[in-house]
Write a structure and sequence with these properties.
Blueprint lengths: L19 H15 L24 E4 L3 E5 L8 E6 L3 E12 L5 E9 L2 E6 L3 E4 L2 H14 L1
Length: about 140
Amino acid sequence: MQHARPVAAGQPHRAALGPVRPIVLALIAVLGVGSCSRDRAPNLPDLPLTSVAALRPTWAVVAGSYLRLHREPRTDAQIVGHLRQAEVAEILAIEPGGRLGDGRTLAWYLLEHGALIGWAPADLVDPHGSHGRAQDAASRMRESL
């Protein structure tokens, strides 16, 4: 029968683990290094893509009964086509300081409707931040006609 060694005064009492302690420490070291790998992808959730918030209107509804689209942002520029009331067009660009024929300045929108692209005075269209909102506004406008 084995007897425990007596502990001398002033020395801490340690259990006699023998060769087990170095094996446990080596195992912890190996597992710790393996868990710090940089190759592992972070655990991130898959989120749906969302559109960027529009800082300017991106869609327009024709507010008047008949809208002329011009080649340049000027009323005396060549007319390239027409849009009718409640039609929806995409706004490609905004010209903040276009000139009217009487000398006043007015913003102009470069609109695209199908294959038709041209400039329209901003006061003749109703701008919206999304296609859905423009479609809703156009539907309400058609109902009121």
